[in-house]
Amino acid sequence: MASVYSYYTYLAFRVLAPLKGLQLLNIIFGQHFREKYVQHNRKINFLMRLIELYKPYLFLKAVFDDMNTVKLQLAVMEGGAGADADVFYFDPNSINWEDLLHQNSYSWSR
């Protein structure tokens, strides 16, 4: 999907249209599918809120530059082992990024 518009179009046909069909069936059959409709409606509303929340990042085409961090690392390593070396040493490769993102992305839902 190339744009937010195409993403919303996809959701309209693949997610929202079947939900509207279930809503119509629910009305025709006298609320027989009420629980299923409410359950799916809640999930879709949650999905739509997540999409709105993360919309700026969905199709972000950014390049993150870490050159200042690399320069800081080199300066600290060349400067010798002083008190500043412990304070200012930062190695992004030492971070378990997958674990960090996993913990932070699910912490708000607890």
From TrEMBL:
Q: Which GO terms describe its molecular function?
A: alcohol-forming very long-chain fatty acyl-CoA reductase activity
Q: Where are the transmembrane segments?
A: none
Query: Could you tell me which InterPro entries the record lists for this protein?
Result: FAR (IPR026055), FAR_C (IPR033640)
Annotated GO biological process: long-chain fatty-acyl-CoA metabolic process; suberin biosynthetic process
Fatty acyl-CoA reductase C-terminal domain residues are 17-102
Extract the PANTHER family matched here.
FATTY ACYL-COA REDUCTASE 3, MALE STERILITY PROTEIN 2-RELATED
What is this protein called in UniProt?
Fatty acyl-CoA reductase, C-terminal
List the source organism. Dillenia turbinata
